[in-house]
Recover the amino acids of this structure.
């Protein structure tokens, strides 16, 4: 007559096989899922309209150009930033930052 293993040992063996089966099924299921698509990038200009000023990139930031940008912005703040210039790090989503190069040409616009 065959002697059965004690109950705790049988239970541990059964649980081990059940866990191995579940892990195998999980591996198969993961392969059948479609690849994750990354979410679209969030627009940088959600609050200040920086994305609408692309036509000014590359232009010299003359008084006339800056006046036109300020007029378009109305009462909202505009800040000109030259390379190496100090700037505050306070977050103001409606503020338009105008980034200039060393020749005072507009490189890009940003919000904060």
């Amino acid at each position: 007559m065959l002697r059965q293993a004690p109950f705790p040992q049988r239970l541990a063996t059964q649980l081990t096989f059940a866990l191995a089966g579940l892990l195998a099924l999980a591996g198969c299921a993961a392969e059948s899922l479609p690849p994750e698509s990354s979410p679209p990038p969030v627009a940088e200009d959600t609050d200040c309209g920086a994305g609408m000023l692309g036509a000014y990139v590359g232009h010299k930031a003359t008084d006339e150009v800056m006046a036109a940008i300020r007029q378009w912005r109305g009462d909202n703040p505009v800040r000109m930033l030259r390379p190496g210039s100090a700037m505050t790090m306070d977050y103001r989503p409606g503020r338009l930052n105008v980034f200039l190069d060393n020749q005072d040409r507009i490189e890009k616009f940003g919000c904060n």
Summary: The two ends are 82 Å apart (CA to CA). Residues 31 and 39 are 21 Å apart (CA to CA). Residues 38-45 have pLDDT under 50 and may be disordered. The longest strand covers residues 106-111.
